[in-house]
Amino acid sequence: MLGMMQPWPLTVDRILGHAATRHARREVVTRSLEGPIVRTSYGEVHARAKQVSNLLLDMGVRPGDRVGTLAWNTWRHLEVWYGIMGIGAVCHTLNPRLHPDQICWIINDASDRVIFVDEPFAELLLSRMDRAPSVERVVVLNHDYENLIADQPEDCAWGGFDEETACGLCYTSGTTGDPKGVLYSHRSNFLHTLMCLQPDVIGFSASDVVLPVTPMYHANAWGVAFSAPAVGAKLVLPGARLDGASLHELLESEGVTVSCAVPTVWTGLLQYLDQAGATLTTLKRVAIGGAACPEAIIRGFHDRYGVEVRHLWGMTETSPVATAGAVSPELLARPFEEQLPVRLKQGRAPLFCELKITDDEGRRLPEDGRTFGRLKARGPIVSAGYFKGVAGDILDEEGFFDTGDVATIDPDGVMQITDRAKDVIKSGGEWISSVEVENLAASHPKALLAAVIGVPHPKWDERPLLLVKLRPGETSSREEMLGHLEGRIAKWWTPDEVLFVDDIPLGATGKIDKKAIRAAYADYRLPGT
After folding, report:
1. All structural domains of the chain
2. What is the pTM of this model?
3. Active site residue: 431, 446, 474, 494, which one?
4. Per-residue pLDDT tens for 198-226?
5. Does residue 426 carry a catalytic annotation?
6. Is 40 a catalytic residue?
7. Annotated active-site residue in 136, 146, 426, 480
C-alpha cells in the first residue's frame, strides 16, 4: 500500500522561494569587490534571480544545459546560482584559483554555454575563449550584468521538473590526474540542506547571522547558500577580502554568530586578533573543514574568545558535508580538556550518510577507534559516479564510495581521518598518520603551518619528514620541534628530520598541497642514508 501524501518534488528553487515568502526582508549583505557594503534581502535576491532565469531563457539556455560561474561569494553570484537552477539548467561553479589552462579544460569538459564572471577574472577568461568553443556568451558581473537583467521580468516559472534533475556541477581539485565532475541533483542538494540544518551538524536558525568564508565554488560553499535561506538566517558574503582584518570587521559590524572556513583562514583571523588586541563579541560557533583542524585553533577560539569549533568532514563527492564533530551530552558535561581529543576528530555521520572502513581487499574492519582502514561512504548525498562516466563504476558491492581517506571509527561512531590513502607514510610495514603528526607540530606556539611527507629510507621504506613554517619573527630548532612531539605520538612516528621553510604551498581549496611538496622533495634524502 502506498502512502497518500502530496507529491512535492524536492527542488532547490523552493528553498529561495520559501525565503522570499517567509523571510523576505531578512538581509543578504555583501562586501562588494569594489569595497563598499551592499545590502539586499531574500525577497530582492529572489526577484532578481528570476530576472537571471529570463535572461538565460532569452539566450536559449534549456534544462540540462551547463552555465558556468567564476565568482566570489556575493549577492550577484547568489542570484545567478538560483537563476540557473530554477529553470532546470546546471550551475557549474568554476574555481578561480586553478591554473587558467585547467579552468579552460574544465569548461570544455562541462560544455558550458554561458559563463557569469566577476570582473577581476574577466580578462583571464576572455583571453582564452578561443579555446572554449562551447561558450556562447560571457556575462561580467557588474554593469554588463545589471544592464542585461534590468529589462527582464521578475516573474519566471521555476521548478516543475523531477527532483532527480541535475542541479549543480562541481569538479574535484584534480590532485591526481584530471579533475572529475560531480553532478548533484536537486534532491541530493535538498536532502543535504536538511542534513546540515540538524543541530548537531551546522544547525542554522532564523536568529543566526551566517558568514560563509568558504567559497561558493568550493563544493557549494558547504551547502550554506542553500541552508541559510532555508531558515531565513541573515547571510553575510565576504567577497574577495578574506584576510583576518577584513573578516573581523564583518564579524563585528554585522553581528555574525556562525561562520565556516578552512583552517588557514582561521589561523589568519586568530593571528590578526592577537596582533590587534581585538575580540569577538557575537560569534558563537565556527565550522572548520577542508583539512584537519589543528589543536591550536580549537584552543585559541575556546580559551580566548569562548567560541565553539565544530569539525566538519566531507568532499566534493559527498555534497560535501558527511560528518560533523558535535560532542555528546555526556562528554559536554566534562571539562574541556577531556572533550578536546574528541573535538579534534571529524565526528559522526548524520542521517543521510553511512560510513564504513575496510582493508585494501574490501573487508570490513572493526570500529574500535584504533584500527585504520579505507573510509567509504554511501547515502543520497554521495556521488554514484562521475560526470560522463569518467572512472567507471566507483561503488563497491554494497554501494559505498571509496573516499580515498584512511580513518578510524570508534564504538560511538566518531570518525577520525588519519590520512589520505596516498599521503599515509608506510614505515616498516606499519602506517604513520602524517595528519596527526603535522597537527601536533602546528600546535607549537612558534609554528604557523606544518606539513609531513614520507621520504625514502633504505631500511624502513619510508620515514616522515617534517616541514615547519614559523610565525613571523620566530626562530626554532629541530630539537625544540621534536621535543614538542615527544610523548604525544608513538616514538617510531617521530620525524627523522625537521626542515624550516619560508612557505608551505596550499592548493586551490586552501589545503596543504602534499602533491607539490612531494614533487619539491622528490630527490631529498635523509641525513645518513
Report:
1. 8-186 (3.40.50.12780), 354-420 (2.30.38.10), 425-520 (3.30.300.30)
2. 0.87
3. 431
4. 999 999 999 999 999 999 998 888 999 99
5. yes
6. no
7. 426
